[in-house]
Amino acid sequence: MRIQMPDAVSMIIKKLLDAGYEAYSVGGCVRDALLSRTPCDWDITTSATPDVIKRLFQRTVDTGIKHGTVTVLVRSESFEVTTYRVDGIYLDGRHPESVSFTRSLSEDLLRRDFTINAMAYNYDSGLVDPYGGEKDLAAKLIRCVGDPLARFGEDALRMLRAIRFSACLSFEIEGDTFSAIKELAPSIKSVSPERICVELCKLLAGDRPDLISLLCETGLAGFIMPELDALFERGDGEKLLASLSSSRPDRIVRWAVLTHFTGNPVKIMRRLRFDNKTTDGVFMLTSHSEPFYADISRSGLKRIMAKLGTGLIPSWFDFLDALHGEGFSNDLRETFRDILEKNECFSMRDLAVTGKDILELGCPKGSSVGEVLDFLLDEVIKTPGSNEREPLRELARECIKGLTDNRQT
Length: 409
Ligand code: ATP
Ligand code: MG
Fold this sequence. Notes:
CATH topology of the domain at 1-132: Beta Polymerase, domain 2
Number of helices: 22
Distance between the termini: 86 Å
Strand content: 5-15%
Oligomer: single chain
CATH superfamily of the domain at 1-132: Beta Polymerase, domain 2
Structural class: alpha+beta
Number of strands: 11
CATH architecture of the domain at 1-132: 2-Layer Sandwich
Largest sheet: 7 strands, mixed
CATH class of the domain at 1-132: Alpha Beta
Helix content: 40-55%
Shape: elongated
Bound molecules: adenosine-5'-triphosphate, magnesium ion
Radius of gyration: 28 Å
């Protein structure tokens, strides 16, 4: 089996080989290439030590020198080149206490989590696969390299990675590996929320996001997302799985679908240390989930466009479709396109008058300015074509007068 490696990767490997060292592409990229999927990045493993790597290549960055990783820059791309390494024992279930370099590729492959992730490749030697990765790829199996209890004991995150790969690739988890996860599930508590979040995001972005149910089946959910267990106990789990399966693999959409069913989107996302922008986006979608949105007016849609921002609107449509069925938001999508095409004003930012104008017209400082602008925006949203400076100023004058009269009485 020949794998087509990017030119830059072949070049890096060739340079290391020419200098008398061993070098291979390794891990996820080999797995993905064998599955005819496009690898997201190409990692290289080599017998050369970091100082040698740095001497051989002009542009390098010390990304993880302690762990033997040097980033090699080729044009605008970067590649992680890591020295063959054996991990020391993991006392905290998170980080190896020490790493030491080795001259043996098969030792380096032995420290890797799953057989399908423990293969290496270069054009000279072809595929190096001492732990049966290719066979497990064909059988669509996630299987630990070595004894699963020992491997999960070293690094508890691997349990979640097993489920993540299962969901991303639509693979089954091999029996002993699965039993070990069930046994050691509570040890996931030792893993940081940030690392858990990365794996959950990849899990949800996969071909089989419905395999998030494995979190409950293995007992991991109780420690990282108890809301999921509660959902299944309420009997609503299947609805979530069906909606996830039918949703587009977009991060915001899938997290919105998940937290729509579990409830508590903000609490869950804060716990997982999501950034504010993603949390706000998911919250916005989950706050607009009702079926009546299919029937809102053009003005109603413009108000939601102002609230969510146009960037989030396509995700909102996808979210509604996932909840209420394919094609649910077709009419909304059409109206949205038309509003944009006709350049109709729907947000304060595009209003032909500003807060400064309103003040100049004699509006008292403070919240009244916002009230006047809201009123004008409402008019403009209702009547396309009315976003003209002079008529709006006229309208503002009346509005200010109304406000001041009201306050005086
Ligand atoms: P992705 O497609 O998400 O990048 P990947 O398999 O490349 O998947 P990475 O996290 O990029 O995953 O790690 C690269 C390789 O490093 C893995 O294929 C695996 O060989 C090894 N690896 C990563 N994390 C672990 C871990 N926690 N324990 C053991 N080996 C690991
Ligand atoms: Mg990778």
